[in-house]
Amino acid sequence: MVGLSRFQPAMTEHTTPTNAVELYLDHRRGDLASASLQSHEYRLNPFLRWCDQEGIQSMETLSGRDLAAYKAWRRDDGDLAPATLKTQMDTIRVFIRFCESIEAVPENLHEKVLSPTLKARENQRDERIKPEQAKEILSFLGRYRYASLGHVIMALLWRTGIRLGGVRAIDLNDYKPDRSRIELYHRPESDTPLKNQTEGERYLALKTKTCELLDDWIEYNRPDVTDDYDREPLLASNHGRLSRASTRRYVYRLTRPCEIGDCPHGRDPDTCEATGNGGHAASKCPSSHGTHAIRRGSITHFLASDVPEEVVCDRMNVSRDVLDDHYDRRPEEQKVEQRRGYLNNV
Predict the structure, then answer these.
(1) Is residue 167 located within the same domain as residue 283?
(2) Pairing of strands 202-205, 236-237
(3) How many of the other CB atoms lie within 10 Å of CB of 33?
(4) pLDDT tens for residues 212-246?
(5) Do residues 263 and 227 share a domain?
(6) In terms of Cα–Cα distance, which of 159, 142, 137 is closest to 258?
(7) Which of 40, 173, 185, 312 has the largest CB neighbor count within 10 A?
(8) Global pTM?
(9) What's the structural domain count of the chain?
(10) Cβ neighbours of residue 315 under 8 Å, at least 6 residues apart?
């Protein structure tokens, strides 16, 4: 009798996640531009990190349940806008389909990759807070809620362009008032990883007014608490280190136009769903913004203020390609006129 193994996809050789990614990238090398190939590698690196964390040593053992768990982990692990999470999961689906072609994973597993369905606003990759709105919010907070937790969050996000994961990772002793700076460190073992891990570690120079704000927050308003790892967080509530979800809620609430003025949508604040008591109510406001929109607006503002791109890349911990593709929202007319200013001096 002819052996049945000829007609069955026998996965006798185990393929590790690392080997699978290497094979995939090599396979795509001929049909993707260098920058696109690097983007695929960047999106797959978190998958390798997750597999290592979960002890997954063979792609053959992956299931739909695992992929759903990875999606949830990836969503919570980094500072990902919904559109970014969708892009990353779409890449995972293409990668898993390739793994099927080399019989490294169960057949049709790619169909179980759950990619987010975006709402209309979430698909607007251009969403960003404008400089005038940021300054208006900070001015309001400086006058009526000076050195409050919300004031500190908004000031740090806007003036440094820091990611959500970075701002909540700052410890009290990471702030160096004598040197007017904050030092960022990757500490995954105590629940404050940086998106780019150790490559995201850096010093952030602060202006005098930001240091004064932090000094007053620390002296008068910051709760004297530690987190679950006996670290002293800079951004703290009475319960310890501020969570990602709590930080997002502060930002959504403070960027609602009705928080500092009139509603541009003609809604009654007493009945509006975005001013309700629910934890995520503020995100339902059509004009509120998330943390990523502040980062994108801050980066664009720095660039529009003639800060050199290499300085912005270093300060915001973003590559030149990603800066151009996802953050720089200056009109082309503005870019060419800014370049003219430099060229006229040559």
Answers:
(1) yes
(2) unpaired
(3) 8
(4) 999 999 999 999 999 999 999 999 999 999 998 89
(5) yes
(6) 137
(7) 312
(8) 0.64
(9) 3
(10) 160, 161, 202, 204, 205, 302
